[in-house]
Amino acid sequence: MNNAQRISRSSSTTATAVAAAVHQALDASDPPFQSYICDACGYIYHEVDGDPDGGLPPGTRYADIPEDWSCALCGVSKADFSPYTPPSLETLRAAIAGHGAPTVATRGGNAGVLIVGAGRAGWQMAEALRALDASLPITLVSNCAGDLYDKPLLSIAMARGLAPEALARESGAAAAARLGVRLLAHTQAVRICADTRTLRTTRGVLRYDRLVLAHGAQANLPAALPAALCWRINHLAAYQRLRAALGRMEHEGPKDVLIVGAGLIGSEIANDLALGGHRVTLLDPQAAPLARWPAEQAGGALLDAWRDLAIRFVGGVQVVQLEQLHGRYRLTTDDGQRFVADQVIAATGLETPSRLAQSAGLHWYNGIAVDAATLRTSDARIHAMGDCIAINGQPSRFIEPIARQARAIAADICGATPAPYEARAAVVRVKTTSRPLTLH
Ligand SMILES: Cc1cc2nc3c(=O)[nH]c(=O)nc-3n(C[C@H](O)[C@H](O)[C@H](O)COP(=O)(O)OP(=O)(O)OC[C@H]3O[C@@H](n4cnc5c(N)ncnc54)[C@H](O)[C@@H]3O)c2cc1C
User: Cα(50) to centroid of ligand 1, in Å?
Assistant: First the structure.
């Protein structure tokens, strides 16, 4: 019997307890558990945790993963994973010494690279720069705590039994120390002055030699949904507050949740909250969920899979009003229907905030317009990446391109061998765990 077979995960057991049990079941002669990273999206497969949703019990060794298994986040195959240990400054320095990568020209008061945003894009950028230059001054400014987490987990965490406070993989402070980066957390970037190469922030003015905008996008709320009355799930802190408001199922029981918008995020969250025991009503102007993919008939498949779940889909409606009512919320649609719920979530799409780009006079086309190969903006000293950019007017709001974007920008900034970025059509894995779908 192997370790994976020895351990079976009961629904009431936490992931941490399972990991501890798997570790205990190791024989002294067994090699320690390893981790592997998806080269496409950065998802990390820990052998100790397995991928129970993907059919891999905790303790499943990478070598034992079947060839038809696919990445939990982006859907590529096992062959696209490589061994992973979090990079440290020491290992990066050793690698640089080993392969003789260039260091950026003399610093002489060089203000270095300033990165705005500590999401996936910001941290990948810092890591890609460090991989090319161990001593380049790098500052990361972010209005959040800067903790590292996998955002795609936010729409599957409840069904996986992941506690919201356990979602951060590493604190921002620890990652900054590991990479030799200065992190200014809880600091809002307010305005760029391109002439003086400075960024005004809520903690003072910062100089830069190169600036990378990685500040993501924000919820695009319809006028009928006041921000104070509904949740938006685009950051860890907001998700943690939503989970706190929903309370623990074993103490407070199921809640009525209204979700407006049945695109990718709305559908995934509806699926997750319903699997977590809540009663969900999902509203959308279209007749079926995932209406952006009519040819793949994804909506029909999803509604079919949801038949036994507490999800009620109401299509063909627009929200006209949301109001607070005796501690609950009442939402009215254009056909006169009224819905009352304990919590309301808006999943109505994203838009890139334009304020920073406008202050620097950067070209704009559905987002910060960047060159398709170098990801430079219209100002040669400013690059942009991640959710905030658009290439030929097409925003890129998926994980997979981010690591490739970071490598292309790092090569451009450090004068290393060019690694031109190549925009590719996204393959979308819809993480509706009751019926996972792959859309093109
Ligand atoms: C629930 C959910 C599930 C998803 N699932 C998938 C999936 O399965 N597959 C996939 O490919 N993609 C998925 N995505 C999309 C993917 O997570 C994003 O494309 C990616 O995380 C974007 O990273 P980013 O760093 O560009 O932006 P963000 O993560 O938004 O980071 C932006 C950072 O900038 C900071 N910031 C913003 N404005 C300022 C300012 N003015 N000053 C300072 N700091 C600022 C923010 O605090 C944040 O740290 C999902 C998204 C969500 C919300």
Answer: 25
